[in-house]
Amino acid sequence: MTSIPLIGEAVAVAAEPRLAGAKIGVVTFPGTLDDRDAARAVRLAGGTAVSLWHADTELGDVDAVIIPGGFSYGDYLRAGAISRFAPLMSKIIDAANSEAKLPVLGICNGFQILTESHLLPGSMIKNDHLKFICRDQTLRVENANTAWTVDYADGQEIIVPLKNQDGQYIADEKTLDALEAEGRVVFRYVGFNPNGSRRDIAGISNAAGNVVGLMPHPEHAVETGFGPESLDGAPRDTDGLGFFTSVLTKIVGGDK
Asked: How far is 241 from 38, CA to CA, in rounded Å?
C-alpha cells in the first residue's frame, strides 16, 4: 500500500540544491485566493517563494513572478481591470518587456490581469454557459519551449484543475491566426471546451515566451495524493508541477 504524505509533510521533489537559489515572486491582490498554493508549488519544485504585495513599488531581486488566481478587487468592472493599475504591475510589465525578459506566469485571474495589462493579447469574458465551472481538465501542451513549459513535451497531455466564471478567451481572427502561426498557443483544451474559448485555447504566451497565461490551475496538481485522477483512475496529481520546475530550470541555466 502506497503511503500518502500529510499535506504538512510534503517535501520538494527537486534533487538539485542549486534550484533553491531561484527566487519566485508571488503577487497578492485584494481578493487573491491562490497565492499560498502557488508559493507552495514553488517550494515543492525546489525554489524559494517570495511574497509580493500589489502596492509594492519594487520587485526586489526575484527571478520570476507568478500572478495567481482569485477574484482581485472582486472582479469589479472586468476581471483584472483594476489590478492592472496596481503599482507593482508597472514594475512587472517593465521587467517582462526588458532585455532581461523576466518570466511571468498568470494563472486564471492572473491570466486576466496579463491581458488587461497588454502583456498578452486578447481578452477574457464570461463563460459561454454563464456559469462558474470547477472540474479536472485535460490540456495538450502545444509549445514546450516557453520559460514555464520546458519540462514538458510538445503534444503531451496533462490534467489539472479548472475553476472560473470569466474563462472564455477571445481575440479577433487576425490575432488568433498570429498566435497559431507563431506557436504562441501554449495549451489547448482536450475533449471538452469548458468555457467557449476560441479555438479551444487554454493558455498563450508573448512572442519571447517569457510571459505565459492560462486559465486552469497547475498549482493545484503538484502533490501526490492531492490532485486530479485520469478517467481510468490512474494518479495524475503532479501533472502541474512541471510549470514550476520548468521556470527553475530556465533560471539556473538548464534550458532544453
From this structure: 10
